Amino acid sequence: MTTKQIQKLKSPKFIQQIESTLKPLEFLDRCAKDYGDIFFTNSFGNLETLVVSHPQDIQELFNPVNKILDAPGAANEIFKPHVGENSLIMQDGERHQKQRKLVMPPFHGEQTVNYGHQICEITQQVMQHLKPGETFIARHLCEDITMTIMLKVVFGIEQEAKFEKLKTLMTTWLSLTSSPIGASILLLPFLQKDLGAWSPWGRYRRLRQQIDEQIMTEILERRQQVQSSSHRDILSLLIQAGYDDGESMTDIELRDNLLTLLNAGHETTATSIAWALYWIHQQPEFYHKVLHELQSLNTPDPVKIAQLPYLTAICQETLRIYPVSVFTFPRITLRSVNLRGYHVASGTYITPCIYLTHHREDLYPQPEKFQPERFINRKYSSYEFLPFGGGSRQCLGQVFALFEMKLILATMLLNYQFKLEEFAPVAPTRRGFLISPQGGVKMSLAVDTAY
Ligand code: HEM
C-alpha cells in the first residue's frame, strides 16, 4: 500500500494559536474543509500535534490491545495553573493509574446513585431563589447548582459561611479566564507574567493561593472528623481510601485533586445543562416529548429518571452537537502506526477531535441540526460518539456527569415552566478551556410555575 502524506496547516504558528483561541470551532471547520480528517497543527502551546477525527483512526489508537498511545502528564502543562502539579491530570504511567483507581469509585455505579436525592434537593434549593417572571442566564443558574453539588456532595462542606467563601473565591477566579480574551492567559503561556496583584496573571495566582489555603483547611479539619463520624461525602471517602500498597493520598495530592474535580466537573456539566435547556425550549416538540416522558413516571425516582430513553437522547445530542470539550487531552505514540494508509511516526503527539468526529456528515447527517432521535434510531460506538474522550484518560466523572445532567434537568422541567428569551440562534463560543453558549442562554421563569 502506498503511504499517504499527512498535511500540515500552512498558516504561521502564531496565527493558528490566535484563531484557535478566539474562534475555535470556525478554525476547526476550516481545517477539516481544507485538510480533511487528519492533519498536523501548531495551535496547542509549543507542540506540533496530529489531529484525528475518523472513527477508524480513533478506534485503532484507543484500543488498549494495540498499546499505541501513552497519555503523558507533561502534555497537559497548559492545565497546571488550573489544577495543580499533583493533580492526576498532570501524572502519567503507573502514578496516574494509581490515582485514578483511588478517585474513581465514588463517581461510579452504586455510589453515584446514593447522591441522587441530594442532587435533586440542591437543584430545588437553588431554583427557589428565582422569582416567577424573573429573567436569568441559564449557564449562571446551572453553575450555581453544579458548584453547590461539588462543594456539598464532593467536598462535604456543610457550614454555610465556609461554603459561601469557597464558592465566591472559585466563581471570581474562574471568571478571570471566562472570556476568549481572558482565556488567553491560560492558552498563551507567554502572557503568564506576574506584574503585581492587579495584573491579570498576578490576580489569577493570588486567588488560586487563597483557594488552595481554603481547601487545605477543609482537608485538615476533615482528617480529624473522619476518625469519629460517618461522613459520606467524596472527600471523606478519599481520605479513608488507600492505594493497593497501603499508601494513601498526601494532603497536597488531595488538595490538587479536589481542585481538579471542581474544575473538571462543575463548569462542564453546567454548560452542558444550559445547552440542553436551550435546545429543549427551542422547539416545542422536544419540550413536550421530554416532559411527557418525565410525567409518565409515577414517582420521579433518580434511578428511573436516569433510564429514560428520550431524556438520555436529549443529553447525548446536546453533548454531540457542541461538546463542551472540543478535544481529548493530548496523547503520544509509543510506536509508529499506520492509520488508513497514513504513516504516523513513534513519538508523535496526537489529539482526537471530539467536535470534528461529532460533525461528520457520514455519521450524523445534517450535523448542525439538533436531532435527539438519532440516538434513538442508532447506537453509536465509543469511537463515533465520545464527549468524554476515551482510553486511559477517559473522563473520570462521566457516569456522575450524565446522572447529574438528567436529574437536574428532570427536577427543573417537572417543577418549573421556562421561556427562552433568545430571539436569534445562540452561537457557541470559547469560555476558558470550554465551548459554551454565547451569552449563557437567556431564559425566564413563567409566572405560573407550579405543575
Ligand atoms: C458533561 C460533563 C463533562 C464532560 C463533557 C467531560 C469531558 C471530559 C473530557 C473530554 C475529558 C478528557 C478525556 C480524554 O482525554 O480522553 C475529561 C477528563 C476528566 N474529567 Fe470530565 N467531563 C465532564 C464532567 C466531569 C465531572 C462531573 C468530573 C468529576 C466530578 C470530571 C472529571 C474529569 C477528570 C478528573 C478528568 C481527567 C481524567 C484523567 O486525567 O485521567 N468530568 N472530561
Overview of this protein structure:
By secondary structure, this protein is an alpha+beta fold. It has a single domain (7-445), classed as Orthogonal Bundle (Cytochrome p450). Helix content is 51%, strand content 11%. The chain contains 19 helices and 13 strands. It has helices at 13-22, 24-35, 55-62, 80-83, 93-103, 109-114, 116-127, 138-154, 160-175, 180-187, 200-228, 234-240, 251-282, 284-295, 302-306, 309-321, 354-358, 373-377, 398-415; strands at residues 7-8, 38-44, 47-52, 69-70, 135-137, 331-333, 337-339, 342-344, 349-352, 418-420, 428-431, 434-437, 442-445. The strands form 4 sheets. A 6-stranded mixed beta sheet has the order 1-2-3-9-6-4, sandwiched between helices. Strands 5-13-10 form a 3-stranded antiparallel beta sheet. β7 (337-339) and β8 (342-344) form a beta hairpin. Protoporphyrin IX containing FE (HEM) binds next to α13 and α19. This is Cytochrome P450. One of its GO terms (molecular function) is iron ion binding. Heme binds at residue 395. Keywords: Heme, Iron, Metal-binding, Monooxygenase, Oxidoreductase.
Topology:
Elements: E1 7-8, H1 13-22, H2 24-35, E2 38-44, E3 47-52, H3 55-62, E4 69-70, H4 80-83, H5 93-103, H6 109-114, H7 116-127, E5 135-137, H8 138-154, H9 160-175, H10 180-187, H11 200-228, H12 234-240, H13 251-282, H14 284-295, H15 302-306, H16 309-321, E6 331-333, E7 337-339, E8 342-344, E9 349-352, H17 354-358, H18 373-377, H19 398-415, E10 418-420, E11 428-431, E12 434-437, E13 442-445
Helix pairs in contact: 1-2, 7-8, 7-19, 8-13, 9-11, 11-12, 11-13, 13-14, 13-16, 13-19
Bound molecules: protoporphyrin IX containing FE (HEM).
